[in-house]
Amino acid sequence: MSELIITLQKPITFEGKEYKEIDLTGLEQLSTRDLVEADKQFNTSGQMAIMNEMATGYTLIIASKASGLPIEFFDSLPASVGLKVKNRVMGFLNA
Q1: Residue 17, helix vs strand vs coil
Q2: Is 56 helix (H, G, I), strand (E, B) or coil?
Q3: Mean pLDDT across the stretch 68-92?
Q4: Contact 63, 71 (CB under 8 A)
Q5: CA atoms of 95 and 69, how far apart (whole Å)
Q6: pLDDT category, 1, cuts 50, 70, 90?
Q7: Cα-flanking dihedrals φ and ψ of residue 63, to 5°?
Q8: What is the tens place of the pLDDT at every residue in 45-79?
């Protein structure tokens, strides 16, 4: 199983749909333009970081782009799942 697929211990329901995993394999298809757009979105949201790729908010924006799920999905995750997403995205970006 890919490290970019996060299997959830408890399913998450978002907008009436149940999710048993979060598929981040789309990270492999992101372009540099996607990263620049994520930088702009992160900065426009009022968040700041010395290194964007280490900030939770930024990694969730990247996860949203990679998965096709809205940022609201990631914002509503339980903290432990949000941290798993952050760590997987961060690991991918810093590999």
Answers
A1: strand
A2: helix
A3: 97
A4: no
A5: 24
A6: low
A7: -60, -40
A8: 998 899 999 999 999 999 999 999 999 999 999 99
- For residue 68, give the amino acid letter: G
Q: In the chain, pLDDT over 70 holds for what percent of residues?
A: 99
Tokens, residue 30: 């992101």
* CA–CA distance, 52 with 59 (Å, rounded to integer): 8
Residue 20, phi then psi, degrees to nearest 5? -105, -10
The CA-atom distances, in angstroms, between 16 and each of 12, 26, 49, 69, 91 are: 10, 23, 34, 13, 31
Q: How far apart are CA 76 and CA 94, in angstroms?
A: 25
Q: Which residues contact 48 (CB under 8 A, 6 or more apart)?
A: none
